[in-house]
């Protein structure tokens, strides 16, 4: 049996934490001289129940912010797709995509009721080709390229110097729509180091957009910044910040 007082306690905490996150985001935009509506809040929902996700989405909406949600694991995406559809949210895949899961991931993202979708973690031609093969819609699939700006070997993503080549190849694939770049910030206690990575992604976005290569002119988004570094990311031009812990509390 679940103790109901514990459930409402944790729901109240999620509401409070999500409100606080919305305030941080608004304050970060103001501090950077940016329109708060130019930065989307993506709730990173890994390990969270559908109930907790609903609580956070509704809390953000009550603050006047329409959040996106992001899942890392295809299995969890599949399990929560109906709940996401019920909430009428846009859903992004933010974890690396194994080739044997592509079909399941795309099917889940196309659940009727889900209002938008994006695969943020394309970091190779092979992944791009697999998406092309399994995307069976007329409208192109929105994707981002994941870039490893920190160079940390534990992180996925193309090295910055290979991003233009990948973007150019993706630009030749009419069923993919390259909308932006995604990165995970450096694991460093030094703000300058983390900021330098975010600024690198911003510069790279501009370089790709101005490269003149087919399919690159519309590259717009910068998905960067998490609970610990969202202010630095917003200052460097983030258009999507991905927040888990700050909204939901520590993961088990
Ligand atoms: C978990 C996760 C986040 C959110 O991280 P927090 O530190 O909990 O805010 C953001 N992006 C990705 C890719 C993640 O896996």
Q: What is the arithmetic mean of pLDDT? A: 95
What percent of residues are in strands? 15-25%
Instruction: Please list the strands of the largest sheet in the order they lie side by side.
Output: 7-6-5-4-3-2-1-8
Bound small molecules, by name, code or SMILES, are: pyridoxal-5'-phosphate
Number of helices: 9
Oligomer: single chain
> Structural class given helices, strands, pairing?
alpha/beta
Taking all Cα atoms into account, the compactness measure Rg is: 18 Å
> Spans with pLDDT under 50 lasting ≥5 residues?
none
What characteristic shape results from the CA principal axes? globular
How much helix, percentage-wise, in residues? 40-55%
CA-CA gap between termini:
19 Å
Largest sheet: 8 strands, parallel
Can you characterise this structure?
The protein is of the alpha/beta class. The chain has nine helices and eight strands. The protein has an eight-stranded parallel sheet. The protein is globular, with a radius of gyration of 18 Å. Pyridoxal-5'-phosphate is lined by residues 44, 46, 72, 94, 184, 226-228, 242-246. Pyridoxal-5'-phosphate (PLP) is lined by residues 44, 46, 72, 94, 184, 226-228, 242-246.
